[in-house]
């Protein structure tokens, strides 16, 4: 067992990311499980916190099997896992129908979690994507590709635990990966937490209230401004 809970994982991950503190990064969490981890990172790096609203597109008869993922935006980013689609015998119509259901859930979460909250501007910034772990990497890949379109200066993926082969597939998509452990025979993310209870909407909302979405300015001196929005 590597971590007591997501907060413990976040504290450990923050220690591994401390070299980024002076570069004034923006922390972007994958809800819901990634938010408690990312909150610990944001606190210790004195960084703003925002969400990447991404949903797995699960196979109809096996919802835990990712046949793709979708990220919200003016033009949603959709990543397809063609091998799974073909193996499960999923038609284009069925894929599109499940994708629409997940986009509807993303819209619900956006309204509930964010409301009229300001969003982080990552253009020209160091952006760090945080989750509580990675399994297949489908949702993570969708999040990375969506964030790339927002033109960050540097894109970092930071997670407590993930299978090595998944990280190897994602390596070309980011500028750096920080992962605390890559155990063999990975299994499931929850195996590596003593407490892996589901994170609820109210917890996500409460954590977001503790952190701003962005700094107002970063002075030429290199020190972060005291003002937040």
From TrEMBL:
Which InterPro entries does the UniProt record give?
A: PRTase-like, PRTase_dom
**Gene3D superfamilies cross-referenced by the UniProt entry:** 3.40.50.2020, PRTase-like
Residues annotated as domain Phosphoribosyltransferase: 13-174
Ranges in a coiled coil: none
Q: Name one GO molecular function term.
A: glycosyltransferase activity
Q: Which UniProt keywords apply?
A: Glycosyltransferase, Transferase
**Matching Pfam families, A to Z?**
Pribosyltran
Xref: CDD domains: PRTases_typeI
- SUPFAM superfamilies, alphabetized: PRTase-like
This chain's protein is named Phosphoribosyltransferase
Q: Which organism is it from?
A: Bradyrhizobium nanningense
Ranked from the top, the taxonomy reads: Bacteria, Pseudomonadati, Pseudomonadota, Alphaproteobacteria, Hyphomicrobiales
């Amino acid at each position: 067992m590597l971590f007591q809970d997501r907060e413990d994982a976040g504290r450990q991950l923050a220690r591994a990311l401390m070299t980024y503190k002076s570069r004034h990064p923006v922390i972007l969490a994958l809800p819901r499980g990634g938010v408690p981890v990312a909150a610990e990172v944001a606190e210790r790096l004195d960084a703003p916190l925002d969400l990447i609203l991404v949903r797995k597109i699960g196979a109809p008869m096996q919802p835990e099997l990712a046949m793709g993922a979708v990220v919200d935006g003016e033009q949603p980013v959709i990543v397809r896992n063609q091998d799974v689609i073909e193996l499960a015998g999923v038609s284009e119509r069925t894929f599109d129908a499940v994708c629409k259901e997940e986009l509807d859930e993303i819209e619900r979460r956006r309204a509930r979690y964010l409301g009229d909250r300001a969003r982080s501007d990552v253009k020209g910034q160091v952006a760090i994507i945080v989750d509580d772990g990675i399994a297949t990497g489908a949702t993570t890949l969708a999040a990375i590709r969506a964030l790339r379109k927002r033109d960050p200066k540097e894109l970092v993926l930071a997670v407590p635990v993930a299978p090595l082969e998944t990280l190897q597939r994602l390596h070309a998509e980011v500028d750096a990966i920080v992962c605390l452990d890559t155990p063999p025979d990975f299994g499931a993310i929850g195996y590596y937490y003593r407490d892996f209870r589901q994170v609820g909407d109210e917890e996500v909302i409460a954590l977001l209230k503790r952190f701003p979405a962005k700094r107002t300015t970063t002075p030429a001196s290199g020190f972060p401004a005291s003002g937040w929005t």
